[in-house]
Amino acid sequence: MSSHSVEIDRHLNANLKLNLGNSTPPRDAYSLYYEIFSRHASLISQDRELLLKIQDPPRRVRKGKVIKSHDINANYLLAIQNGWACSCRVTKEGKRQIIDLYLPGDIIGLRDHHAGRHSDEIIMLTEGLVIPMLKSNLDRVTQKGPHLVNAVLAAAVHQSNLMTDRLNNLISHDATTRLAYFILEMHARLNLSRLESQDLSLPISQQTIGDLLSMTNVHVCRCLNILEAKEFLMRNKTSHNIHILKYEDLIEFSGFSTAYSYFFKKAFHGFYRTPKTH
Question: Considering the entire predicted model, what is its pTM?
């Protein structure tokens, strides 16, 4: 790492110690929390200023770092500006079980905001940037009006709906269908503002995908070959990039819908098409 990057990291980490509650942020500053919450409910300019005021500066985090657990950042929400993370537990047999994936634009800790201490470990799967926010500060600003309350609640419900859909996918489908659903889920979450894109980049290993979908990495590779043979997609085995060839057919094959289609219909006025029902 260059000396310039080290200096940036030192500056960012030092700024995390500052109390921003009484500072006045620049009017053109960027609020990731506002960007995320405004996808779920209509917010006003005052909400943006409030959220900008209580978010901490971005923090650079390395791959493999635990960024949240029962005793690490337990009182914070963490919004991911860049990078991928996962929520995981270790079974009695010592096997890692991945519960969820967090991508750019996700808020870690939102679903269990009022559930007490965080039981899962959140680990960075890649290098990235996260923006912390004290839960108590969010509670304080949501008391100033209904807009933020509605947005926070809607965002938390949306996250829960995605988890419910994924669980249904795991218990209802065979391995190939589960993987097809996973590919469409990642595509939807990563291409929120450009649904016309047919490309998907996965910066994670087949082992990680297998841990999430209850499959071995060998089985993941076999299922990818099946999806390619069906001409649903084409992949670059070197870069881990996937190009979706038959988007609507892949949707119908996987049964991908519900929480995603409702959300995208609201956000993009029907651009996203709901799968056919039989």
Answer: 0.80
At 194, is the secondary structure helix, strand, or coil?
coil
Give the 3-state secondary structure of residue 269.
coil
Rounded to the nearest 5°, which phi and psi values hold at 132?
-80, 155
The secondary structure of 28-75, three-state, reads: CCCCHHHHHHCCCCCCCHHHHHHHHHHECCCEEECCCCEEECCCCCCC
Same domain, 233 and 140: no
Cα(first)–Cα(last) distance of the chain, in Å? 55
Count of domains observed in the chain: 2
Where in the sequence is the domain holding 256, given as residue range(s)?
A: 173-268
Share of the chain above pLDDT 90, in %: 55
Structure tokens that stand for 168 in this block: 């249904």
Band (117; pLDDT cuts 50, 70, 90): low
Enter the tokens of residue 183: 């590919």
Quote the mean pLDDT of the chain: 81
Same domain, 32 and 103: yes
Residue 275 covered by a domain:
no
Instruction: Give me the amino acid identity at 151.
Output: A
Q: Are 234 and 272 in contact (CB under 8 A)?
A: no
DSSP 3-state assignment of 77?
strand
